[in-house]
Amino acid sequence: MKILVKISLFVLLAGVFSCKEDFVNVENPGALSPTNYPGSVTDLEQLLTGVYATQHANGLFGHTMLAKNTWLWDHTTDLSWQGTPTWIQLAQNNSQPNDSFLYDTWRELWRGVQRSNTLLAAVEKYREKAPQDQAAIDLIKGQALFLRAWYYYHLTALWGEGFIVNGQGGDKMGVPIITDAATSLEATQVDRKTVKENWDFIISDLKTAETLLATTTWTGATDKYKVSGWAVKAFLGKVYVYQQDWANAKTYLSNVVANSGKSLVPFDVYKDMFNGKNEFTSESLFEISLNVDMTARGGDDQSMGSSIGMVIAPTYVGDNGGQAASAWSNVFPHAKNITRFGFKEGHYFKPGTTVANIANVDPTYIAKSKLAKQNKTVDPRLWVACYQPYVDSMVVSGKLRPISHYLDVTETDMEAWSFRKFLNPNGTEAEINMADGANIPWLRLADIYLLYAETLTHSGDNTTALEYINKVKRRAYGYPVNTVSAVDYKSLTAATMASDDVLKNDPLKYERWAEFFGEGQWWFDVCRWKIGDKEAAYYQRIRGGAIQWNNTDYAQPIPINEITSNVNMRQNPGY
Asked: Which residues belong to any copy of the RagB/SusD domain (predicted)?
């Protein structure tokens, strides 16, 4: 089920709460003003809806997230579209302070913080006059604090000068901490706090949310998107791992594993839960709730959907046997990712092919590919995350069409597959008004299992750590999760499907890469493990040029708009 997002009221109220009363002239006593709003729990719920909605605003999961930021930095993607130089630079790890995509994400994250702060102020204002509603008020406050922590998590992880590694780096620059709406220009001139202060603030919000939400669960069809008590605990465990606070990480993660009642879904459910099906499953801890919206395009937080699918849309075989776009079709999986999943079945075009046409496909390749998928000699998650050219199909105007070699990729020897996650399985993205309804399962049990395994390796319990890594792998291969299987890793240095130096003998890293491929998790792992240089060496280049890695690339440049408008804002090193 989905949430209907209407936030125009929220925008008005944000302005009301950020103004001094002497600037507000209300002639109609029934109109909104600080003296009569909020007047009920329903009013607070309206504000809360806006805080949730900001997660899929244009700069976040409504459009820009994934294909215009994290997927570029960690090379999940390559670009078919070559007409935007700054987009190419992002994919080369050469981000620029004037990049509009970066600014969009920065702006929307701060908008999320501002809306959270507006709601939190309204909560305390209403609390004073509604002793009968304290329990409902606490539930709203707990959700608001989780969401503010969510926005700060992304601000800190993307723009903080570095992660805390081996107890070091906490004194580096983070982002400002703002808890009140500014009422003057002077109040907007804020300094950056340290990385440690940022993470401590996030933890503080989550700890308070944990108390307020306790073990709250939401079972109503229209409430499933809301933050539960177990989502808070899981998020806390993730944050503690990111800080390398292994003792607290173990406490929280083990609690979620043992007591949340969550379980990994079977593979047949898992493979489709990124395509508008099988949502809010038994392994879901927090999902960004979306819906097809025929009244508003995706990429706007007033829409119920997301236009990410327009950017990553597959390409298919047209009537002439060549490539046809199913939407904007701007990006495709980097060719080296196909190899990383263990695909070694050759290439779809016959040797010497110069024209990307279905007539030139090698039938031997088709047969070998289908056999590899059937026998699972390639990681099955490859076909969960990607469509294979000339083997897989998609629906276009009600007709099944083969997937093609990706649009505008003229190199006929390149493995130019298409993305599959977060796309409409029943038609093209353009057919659903550019507003895809596939939920984003942002925090799920597989993530917790692997974070728990990582935590256990730091307390010497490698045996249990390996078991939780294997649970995730077993599900991917269709085996019972809790029973020893033929595909189990025998050690924490066993061979994986990957052949590169980063992942070939590291099951923990490989499983995090493969399990969450295309979900926007890998960039944060790259940053906290400090493997950016090794990843850049593996991928080497994108279609627009060579990757240009520097150790300052873990933190993105503060947008130039912020530098010029806030005299106290300092730029990250390297920009």
From this structure: 283-575
CB 552 within 8 A of CB 572: yes
3-state secondary structure at position 196: helix
Q: What is the residue-level pLDDT of the chain in tens, covering all 575 positions?
A: 334 333 444 444 444 444 444 434 445 555 566 678 999 999 999 999 999 999 999 999 999 999 999 999 999 999 999 999 999 999 999 999 999 999 999 999 999 999 999 999 999 999 999 999 999 999 999 999 999 999 999 999 999 998 988 888 999 999 999 999 888 889 899 999 999 999 999 999 999 999 999 989 999 989 999 999 999 999 999 999 999 999 999 999 999 999 999 999 999 999 999 999 999 999 999 999 999 999 888 888 889 999 999 999 999 999 999 999 999 999 999 999 999 999 999 999 999 999 999 999 999 999 999 999 999 999 999 999 999 999 999 999 999 999 999 999 999 999 999 999 999 989 999 999 999 999 999 999 999 999 999 999 999 999 999 999 999 999 999 999 999 999 999 999 999 999 999 999 999 999 999 999 999 999 999 999 999 999 999 999 999 999 999 999 999 999 999 999 999 999 999 99
Query: Which residues face 370 on adjacent strands?
Result: none
In a domain, 404, yes or no: yes
| Residue 376 within any structural domain of the chain | yes
Query: Can you give the residue range of the structural domain that contains 340?
Result: 308-433
pTM of the model: 0.94
Residue 164's alpha-carbon distances to 69, 169, 252, 509, in angstroms, are 22, 5, 19, 19
SS3 state at 202: helix
Question: What are the two backbone dihedrals, phi and then psi, of residue 205, each rounded to the nearest 5 degrees?
Answer: -60, -45
Nearest residue to 148 via CA among 47, 244, 224, 35: 47
Q: Quick one: tokens of 340?
A: 């990383």
The Cα–Cα gap between 214 and 421 comes to: 33
User: Do the domain assignments include residue 453?
Assistant: no
Domain tally, the chain: 1
Q: Where are the beta strands (DSSP E) in 80-118?
A: none
Q: How deeply is 218 buried, as exposed, middle or buried, from its count of CB atoms within 10 A (0-12, 13-18, 19+)?
A: middle
Beta-bridged to residue 288, according to DSSP, are 440
Partner residues linked to 77 by β-bridges: 333
Distances (CA, A) of 65 to 109, 110, 176, 381: 11, 15, 22, 22
**Helix and strand counts by DSSP (H, E) for the chain:** 20, 12
Residue 186 inside a domain? The answer is no
User: Is the dihedral angle over the CA atoms 522, 507, 379, 533 positive or is it negative?
Assistant: positive
Question: What residues have CB less than 8 Å from 177, skipping those under 6 apart?
Answer: 152, 193, 197, 198, 201
